[in-house]
Q: What sequence folds into this?
């Protein structure tokens, strides 16, 4: 059963995620804290960060093979994706807590999951075109869950 998270707890976790320079270890710990409290999306997120699950490895491989530049993401770009996802997730949960009087046990909705992936992917610049314009990741092309979630949305959301 999912436990409640307070705005204080979520703000602390967000500070850890936003203020780390190395990232992966801290992101994995943040995700594990959320997962231990029953937030299942955090298990997927941790898998992507650590590449210790089939879904995590698949997600990273998918991003690399669908990259708009045709090249795999650099470590810095991959770390940026990790940071964007964990902070997007935490900000979403924090908003749920604020809207619910200071605590939440609500998992992210598909709509919010899509939004923070869309925003996060947009913030990752993977190259520049011949005119010097940024080439960015695209949630509809580079997110492994886009198509499955669209199918599920039609049936269940």
A:
């Amino acid at each position: 059963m999912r436990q409640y998270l307070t705005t204080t707890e979520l703000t602390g976790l967000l500070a850890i995620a936003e203020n780390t320079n190395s990232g992966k270890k801290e992101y994995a710990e943040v995700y594990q804290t959320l997962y231990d409290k029953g937030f299942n999306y955090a298990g997927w997120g941790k898998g992507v960060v650590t590449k210790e699950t089939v879904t995590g490895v698949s997600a990273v491989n998918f991003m690399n093979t669908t990259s708009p530049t045709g090249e795999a993401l650099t470590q810095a770009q991959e770390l940026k994706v990790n940071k964007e996802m964990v902070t997007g997730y935490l900000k979403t949960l924090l908003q749920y807590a604020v809207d619910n009087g200071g605590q939440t046990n609500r998992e992210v909705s598909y709509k919010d999951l899509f939004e923070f992936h869309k925003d996060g992917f947009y913030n990752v610049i993977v190259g520049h075109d011949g005119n010097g314009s940024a080439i960015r990741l695209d949630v509809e092309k580079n997110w492994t869950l886009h198509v499955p979630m669209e199918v599920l949305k039609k049936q269940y959301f």
Observations:
- Strands lie at 5-6, 103-104, 125-128, 134-136.
- The chain has one domain: 5-156.
- Residues 127 and 135 are 5 Å apart (CA to CA).
